[in-house]
Design a protein that fits this description.
Elements (H helix, E strand, L loop, with lengths): L8 E6 L6 E5 L15 E6 L4 E3 L8 E6 L4 H16 L5 E6 L4 H11 L5 E3 L4 H5 L7 E5 L5 E6 L4 H13 L1
Parallel strand pairs: 1-3, 5-6, 6-7
Antiparallel strand pairs: 1-2, 3-4, 3-7, 5-8, 8-9
């Protein structure tokens, strides 16, 4: 099978002016992450230009969601994640990753929705491609060890969120 996905990484290195980003990656862009596999680590810039890595979230379960400002179901899902996390902030983390979106549009979108969890910019589509994300919203439920437990498309109600989240937290 080659190199285990858990050992693959993506490193985003922002240039001095912050307008564009150069990406150094050894991740297979055609790979899909399967349930039961460890997610490959990545490092992307957040909305303030600060590096954020998937490995920063190990130790607590993680809800990892891919979104875009132009995605109407994302507009429903992101506040649901905000609400659920606000109810149990010590039980799990949330990380949002932009998908085929402009930085300014992503920033305005999360500000308008009042999102307080970290938002990372996948401006080069490296994480999207390596995780096999082809449509959004797509949400990954990751255990405290970084292993994918569930992958859900289009969470647009609290009931659709609660089942996979409760299973993740019970595991």
């Amino acid at each position: 099978m080659g190199i285990p996905l858990a050992l693959l990484g993506v490193i985003l290195v922002a240039n001095d002016d912050g307008d564009d980003a150069a990406v150094d990656s050894s991740v297979d862009p055609g790979a899909d992450v399967e349930i039961g596999e460890a997610l490959p680590d990545f490092t992307l810039a957040d909305l303030e230009g600060v590096p954020v890595s998937l490995s920063d979230f190990q130790g607590l379960p993680l809800v990892l969601t891919f979104f875009a400002s132009w995605c109407h179901p994302c507009e429903q899902e992101m506040p649901l994640l905000e609400e659920a996390h606000g109810e149990r902030p010590d039980d799990f983390d949330v990380l949002a990753v932009s998908y085929d979106d402009l930085e300014g549009d992503s920033r305005a979108f999360v500000e308008r929705l009042g999102v307080t969890y970290p938002v990372a910019l996948d401006l080069e589509d490296i994480v999207k491609d390596s995780y096999g994300v082809r449509g959004i919203p797509q949400t990954f439920f990751v255990d405290a060890d970084g292993v994918l437990q569930d992958r859900v498309f289009g969470i647009t109600s609290r009931a659709a969120l609660d089942d996979p989240l409760n299973q993740l937290l019970a595991g």
